[in-house]
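Field guide to reading this record: the first block holds the primary sequence, the second block holds the structure written as discrete tokens, and the final block holds curator observations. Each block starts with its own label. This record concerns Cytochrome B oxidoreductase, catalogued under organism Brevibacillus reuszeri.

BLOCK 1 — SEQUENCE
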Amino acid sequence: MATHHANAVLPDEPEKATLEGKNKVLGFWLFLGGETVLFGSLFATFIALRDQANGGPTSQQLFDMPLVAAATLILLTSSMTSVMATLALHKKDLKKIQLWLTITVLLGLGFLALEIYEFVHYVHEGHKISSSAFGSAFYTLVGFHGGHVAFGIIWIILLQVSAVKKGLTVVTAPKFYLASLYWHFIDVVWVFIFTVVYLMGMIGGKVG
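BLOCK 2 — STRUCTURE
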């Protein structure tokens, strides 16, 4: 009954229905701007150091592209499920929001599992964070992104738990919207990582 009542009174785009909600969205965009600058610095550092392998394995010797492609597909799919959660938010359907966000979390966990497997494999191949400038730049950039994925998963789970008690309101709606926006951001960052780190790493190795 509480959900139906909330749905009846919620306006369109409930995440922006109040001044507080609008301010949260604006503030979060500014936060993502800062995150973009930070990731940009890490990308620039990686590009400058990617050829400094110090006699260790190089990118073309290390990277398992089928594994990375599978991880990319999983994360891009999670972006789609996050969009579905936002559409459900605009329809004020809490059950579908919960469903799509749960799928998003599961896909995020699958991505992290593949990334951890990838890192363990690389370490066994002698590619460690302390082994070369390339290793330091690689693990800092890709690991920093992985940390953002883990944070996003925890955030969404906490929202899921909170929504069971509080329902969907003009107070909780912005939180769902911002979590979805954050998830899109880390998906976009991964597209750049896939391109700059993995694809350019393999192409550069072949050209060299």
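BLOCK 3 — OBSERVATIONS
The CA atoms of residues 112 and 147 lie 9 Å apart.
The helical segments are 2-9, 19-49, 59-62, 65-90, 94-124, 133-166, 173-207.
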